Amino acid sequence: VSCLWCNTNATCMDYPARSVFPSSSLCRLSDARWGVCWMNFEALIITIAVIAGLILLCVTICCCYCCFCCKKRSSGRLTAEEERLEREREERRAQAQKRKSERKIKTDDIRKKYGLLQDSDNPYSRFENE
Fold it and tell me: What is the number of other CB atoms lying within 10 angstroms of the CB of residue 27?
């Protein structure tokens, strides 16, 4: 629509394409009509600004909601992964303890074989030098 209706002098003029808003020398903004005769140009600008603001607000809320949901899901995954890592750590600790006890048994057998094993009944027995 290229017509700009001015209520003050009741004329229809070509819309100034170089500027977004018509200049006040052509017609006051409150008296300018564009598109349909009953739509005030100020009201049109305010309506478009409010709609654009609502769209931006909705997009922002959707982004924040999606980020919150992703963070919540990823924290749930982290908890499951942490539990898995803890189980693996416990398994490694148990295997290390088992190997340690096997080494102790072997070491005690070797000490017993060569007579180096102290009496377990009396750990404070005297060590004799030969």
Answer: 20
CA distance 124 to 121: 9
Strand order in the sheet with 32-34: 11-14, 3-6, 32-34
**Token pair of 57 as six digits:** 């607000």
Q: For residue 116, which of 25, 75, 107 has the smallest C-alpha distance?
A: 107
128 phi, psi to nearest 5 deg? -100, 130
The pLDDT mean for the chain works out to: 81
pLDDT in tens, 41-52: 788 888 999 999
Which residues are bridge partners to 40 per DSSP? 33
State which H helix or E strand residue 4 sits in.
strand 3-6
Per residue in 68-97, pLDDT (tens digit) is 877 777 666 667 788 889 999 999 999 999
DSSP 8-state secondary structure symbol assigned to residue 129:
P
